[in-house]
Inverse folding.
């Protein structure tokens, strides 16, 4: 180790001593705190024990947050005391990773919640986290049937409890009989439980009007994110101008940019057309791939439909054109279809890439490589915490498939409760079964409430001068364009912030509303946006939208 | 694309057409099939619906397993038809990954189970998968209290059910109150639920006789594997001779070699001393690191204690020596302690690296970087399917910690049911609580049965000439050394197999017993071993051990 290198380390270690607690903590908080959401439905429970208050986490910080004691720096033992792992010696690709959905603004929101809970005065009574599609955290109720089956699978003694409906019991039995030792505590096959993959296959066949689905093409995953990252991992190779490039929409869901950064792949941006309701133009795809071929090897095209954060729903024609484009340009298609039940707008309909591909005839159906992703986290379920999901893989080379299964086996298996939940999503109560009525009632209520909130959000935001919002045709977010006055842009730039980050931070501090700046998803230069979920309960959403309206007017006035 | 390259692709595609179904399937099967384990405890359930028989998965294979139709290969459309992703164009580091615990021998075991279920005659009635530490699949019962709480968390309506004990209800309430919207369906903080991290911290403080633990150093993970891979990911950097090297024991648990291969890090082997009951010698560590410094940059040292696959339990003295060595050589310590409750041998005791580190005084306690890993999958719980785990991180640079949290946030959060289960493991029923008695009874029964089976396994195997087995001091496996006759080694080498793979394959075909060859874990050249779990019920384990004995004698005779 060079003296210079040691110097860097020592000075860094000294600097660490001067980091304030908040500064240290801000960088490390997650997105939620225990019982922190005032919207939680009430339980007949004793009060939360003091041991789980955030206080303790803070109180003992000093104990292990010392960096290296200064007085020891000069001893000759220095070599053994300088840290092995520092910001300068860690994996450089990890440093490049960014994920705005849980970025600095969310960390500040968590801090504000702590400060409120500690009695600090704020211009608002609660923090509203509209930054992430976390339905249950916003008060959405789980589907009763799903939770009954999960309870039965967790504690099979309940199978003899007469209060549980028979269809819930038979689902639970089928799942348990597919588990080693009839227990969700056993590892499943790395690809997922066979019977669940078969149920997924039949669901896809029903969804796609009878297009055949082979259960052997289904891989259960730890949420859709896991499947997407795994597929990207398989695709990455080459160096320099032969390095794998992956086309992603702009605006995008930042999992894609984060995964590509970590894998050291080349991100190829294609811009969605905001003027045409965030539609996808083939000419733009062509421009992007042509330019990219000069500096990398474009191998995959990612589509998010319905769109996140942009909420558009693709037409069948557009999907056909995308498939032709992928075939012509030899691109592996990745279709992120986790919002497939979240379609609200008149005349809009979800078309799966799989279905369209097969309807285009053998020339495409037998050659174009496609991976499509689904999840238990969105739609009417909103079961994010269970980390359930699947991917279907079409036309993948058999040897690559073997490699995929081998790779998955290292992580043993996806969480079995998430697999069970995925099974229920693709195999819900059928007409004639005891739980059918309540299931349909609950699902319909959730989806129509979302449709109403999508419309409401678009309408209210479009009444604000300086905010223009495309129709929220699907998914769970609005991504309105906002006008930020020159003076505000200037002030933001001077403080080294993106103008929309500056805008959202100000909104958070003044209103307690936590949104994600458009810069976290990507946007055309000079345009500014934010992403806001439409998930809060309607009455709360109305208040939230009015607060946004008032803030925008105040902000515009202040900086004009 | 060059003509030569196209030729490669076409010939590969043509070759794909000739792959037999079994051959294709063998490479892709997982480790289990629905209801396939005859040891499953019986449920009062309807018979498994035919739709979930493996037949369907096979029947439709032909539909999507065509590779590229031959007659189309010659058309000029070839460019668009050659696959984007092939074995030659996929990520080369993924190809290097190996994971024997679910390798070819397990895939063959799954095939044999299918063949048995389809009525094919075999010299055995059932396949016994002793290849993996999957307790529930081997008939071990889950802890009642844990499953009651999970059922309550899954379906909170049960909180009003008087048949559930009060302590289960209060645990469930505490967990739910820490979840957004009081639902396990919400995302948690990326680092894990605050109250769970606080319970983990208090568990560690109790376990380590009062050594302080900061909840902010606790990260909940998706099983221990997730934490281990994440830590390795942070550590990898540099190229050529400055590339990060990581020291792992040989024999090792193959997650380590697999992760290092995928990350492109350098695997540095240090050999455990089989003659001294798989003990760890510092001189061997020194040899390994000295040699490694010539071709890479050793930055981390991985320890598995109690040992997997080797079953040794490290002495306190040895751990102290390892810590001194790590400090002297500036290595980040990774302590895999997932078997911390699985200690059976007289005079053996589990000592955590954290405790020993802090007892060595500030010179070490404040400087040596340590990550220690635990899981819900092993010990007396055996809840593998829930993918619960945590890691504790000591002396990590604050900026790196921020990067770690950022990296974890991309995957949103570990499965919440797994976090809940981890919470119960570290915060089980206490004396005076209604479930305390049954909890202690169940835990003791499981652990003493394991102790008995550990002894039994060692004793029986050591009665066999040509098999020598070290005491199974801890963990869940025996890793006996086997003598393989020259003739067998020759035949194996001629068929391109490792001699112990040849041996285990033969045992599987003749007895239905599925073991993992020592070559999958690493072993000294010229020595051969297999790993066998001690998990089967005692009566079944006796039968299994006798079958192994008979097979070894037959095999030895046949090849001498």
């Amino acid at each position: 180790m060079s003296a210079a290198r040691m110097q860097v380390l020592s000075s860094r270690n000294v600097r660490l001593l001067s980091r304030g607690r908040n500064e240290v903590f801000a960088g490390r908080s997650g997105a939620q705190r225990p019982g922190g959401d005032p919207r939680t439905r009430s339980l007949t429970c004793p009060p939360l024990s003091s041991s789980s208050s955030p206080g303790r986490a803070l109180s003992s910080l000093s104990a292990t947050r010392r960096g290296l004691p200064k007085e020891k720096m000069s001893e000759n033992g220095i070599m053994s005391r300088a840290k092995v792992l520092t910001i300068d010696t860690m994996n450089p690709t990890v440093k490049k990773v960014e994920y705005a959905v849980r970025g600095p603004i969310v960390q500040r929101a968590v801090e504000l919640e702590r400060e409120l809970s500690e009695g600090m005065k704020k211009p608002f009574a609660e923090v509203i986290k509209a930054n992430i599609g976390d339905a249950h955290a916003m008060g959405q109720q789980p589907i009763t049937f799903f939770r009954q089956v999960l309870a039965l699978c967790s504690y099979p003694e309940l199978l003899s409890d007469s209060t549980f409906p028979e269809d819930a019991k038979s689902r639970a039995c089928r799942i348990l009989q597919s588990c080693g030792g009839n227990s969700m505590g056993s590892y499943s096959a790395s690809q997922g439980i066979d019977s669940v993959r078969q149920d997924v296959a039949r669901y896809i066949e029903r969804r796609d009007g009878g297009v055949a689905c082979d259960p052997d093409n289904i891989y259960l995953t730890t949420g859709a994110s896991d499947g997407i990252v795994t597929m990207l991992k398989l695709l990455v190779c080459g160096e320099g101008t032969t390095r794998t490039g992956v086309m992603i929409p702009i605006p995008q869901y930042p999992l894609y940019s984060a995964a590509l950064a970590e894998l050291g792949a080349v991100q190829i941006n294609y811009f969605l057309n905001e003027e045409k309701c965030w539609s996808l133009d083939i000419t733009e795809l062509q421009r992007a791939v042509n330019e990219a071929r000069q500096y990398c090897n474009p191998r995959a095209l990612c589509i998010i439909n319905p769109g996140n954060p942009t909420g558009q729903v693709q037409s069948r024609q557009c999907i056909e054109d995308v498939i032709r484009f992928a075939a012509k340009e030899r691109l592996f298609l990745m279709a992120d279809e986790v919002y497939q039940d979240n379609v609200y707008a008149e005349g809009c309909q979800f078309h799966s890439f799989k279905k369209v591909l097969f309807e285009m005839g053998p020339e495409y159906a037998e050659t174009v490589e496609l991976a499509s992703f689904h999840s238990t986290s969105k739609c009417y379920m909103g079961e994010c915490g269970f980390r359930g999901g699947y991917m279907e893989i079409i036309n993948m080379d058999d040897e690559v498939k073997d490699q995929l299964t081998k790779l998955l086996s290292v992580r043993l298996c996806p969480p079995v409760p998430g697999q069970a939940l995925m099974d229920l999503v693709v195999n819900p109560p059928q007409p004639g079964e005891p739980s059918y009525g309540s299931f349909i009632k609950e699902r319909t209520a959730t989806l129509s409430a979302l449709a109403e909130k999508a419309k409401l959000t678009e309408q209210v935001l479009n009444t604000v001068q300086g905010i223009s919002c495309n129709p929220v045709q699907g998914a769970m977010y609005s991504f309105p364009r906002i006008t930020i006055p020159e003076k505000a842009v200037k002030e933001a730039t001077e403080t080294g912030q993106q103008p929309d980050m500056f805008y959202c931070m100000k909104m958070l501090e003044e209103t307690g509303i936590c949104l994600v700046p458009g810069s976290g998803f990507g946007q055309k230069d000079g345009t500014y946006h934010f992403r806001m979920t439409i998930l809060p309960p309607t009455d709360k959403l109305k208040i939230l939208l009015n607060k946004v309206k008032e803030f925008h007017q105040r902000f515009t006035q202040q900086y004009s």
Remarks:
- DSSP finds 22 helices and 14 strands in chain A.
